[in-house]
Amino acid sequence: MPTATGPSRPPRSAVVVGAGMVGLATAWSLQHHGVEVTVVERRHPAAGASWGNAGWLSPALTLPLPEPAALRYGLRSLVSPESPVYIPPRPDPRLARFLLSFTRHCTPRRWRVLAATFATLNRHALDAYDALAADGVAEPTRPAEPCLLAFRSAAERARMVEELEDARAAGFEIAYEPIDGDRARALEPALSDDVGAAVALHGQRYLNPGDFVHALADAVRERGGRILERTEVSAVRDLGREVAVTTSGGQLRADVAVVATGAWLDALVRPFGVRVPVQAGRGYSFSVPAEGAPTRPTYLAAQKVVCTPLGKGRVRVAGMMELAPAERPVDPRRIQAIVAAARPLLPGIDWDARTDTWVGPRPCTPDGLPLVGPTGSPRVYVNGGHGMWGVALGPLSGRLLAEAIATGTAPAELAPLHPLR
Ligand SMILES: Cc1cc2nc3c(=O)[nH]c(=O)nc-3n(C[C@H](O)[C@H](O)[C@H](O)COP(=O)(O)OP(=O)(O)OC[C@H]3O[C@@H](n4cnc5c(N)ncnc54)[C@H](O)[C@@H]3O)c2cc1C
């Protein structure tokens, strides 16, 4: 059931903090409802996780991060910096609290509940992209027909097939076929003979994330929105009839504020009762020449390495989940670990011609669900915590939140995402 929310009259103006995929998609959708928006960004659009990610729009794989297998990975990774999931051994009470809460959600029963929530969202994720394309966002999304999940053997593939079937049982719409190594190589000649089995996954899309977010920023500006770059927000206050947003460039006033600062969400929203912590799950990426690399989105699932064609003769290679502070610099060992894991399956890539080495923080919540909706203030909203899937779900959550703000009635899909849960 939709629930009533927000101030008594429809807001006419909004300040959105953060110009990543989520903040900009929210701003765009607020404009759609006639709200005047100012986006405030401490660096520039796509300065955070929304730049170097893998750009998969894959509703079939948009699953909750907490899962029973995550526990096994997490424990093993405590001792290995080369592991695709890495928790640096250091005393950090905040991280310990996050992990404790995360662990509680890693049960099969809880997974089914979380997956059902994702299933509902995923059904509309690509429509939200079509709405952007139909109304001024110039950068395209591309069909991945099919995208490939590659494995050394059918036995290695079995876990993924089980996961896809579990997702289907939870309500996901998934079209896939298991194929053998030769068929996979016929589709994708970059794969080596080490690949003995694959899954061809249909109906998914992908994009160049940096280019897309810049196009979204352009569309927001073209519709009359302001984007204040190199402007940091230090506080948001509810003044009763409006909000005051304190920035490094002075104070802004508006009817409502939306905080969409990705992995940096906590500090600005804690004063409004948001207690769910957002932890940086740092991922790494770089790009390689397209020659000898996959021509379609390809996931080496056991190695947890993703390849995505970016256009312009480059392919992005991404991976790793490192639970560490967002601001830390690139750790070269992680890049080497990605190369070492992927090279045997993709031997034609010129791994030494890497450029654009990058690390960025996935904004992870302990239950794997984003935080989308109102806070303790009826004028301060949150949109963030999308973890591994802020690109796939950003436009949809922006649309749902804008509807809640502009109409005062929250769509039913937002109920499990309530920031005060
Ligand atoms: C390696 C990797 C691969 C990924 N692959 C995929 C994928 O294939 N598909 C998918 O859907 N998702 C993927 N993701 C996840 C996705 O990138 C994130 O979920 C998404 O980008 C989060 O967007 P956001 O707008 O919430 O955060 P961000 O993009 O991090 O944006 C937050 C913005 O807020 C700004 N900011 C922070 N604090 C302040 C402040 N105080 N004042 C002003 N501005 C501030 C930051 O500078 C930043 O620009 C991947 C992530 C990684 C790391």
UniProtKB/TrEMBL annotation:
GO terms for molecular function: oxidoreductase activity. It holds the Pfam family DAO. Transmembrane segments: none annotated. InterPro entries: FAD-dep_OxRdtase, FAD/NAD-bd_sf. Keywords: Oxidoreductase. It comes from the Bacteria. Residues 14-403 form the FAD dependent oxidoreductase domain. Its EC number is 1.4.99.-. This is D-amino-acid dehydrogenase.
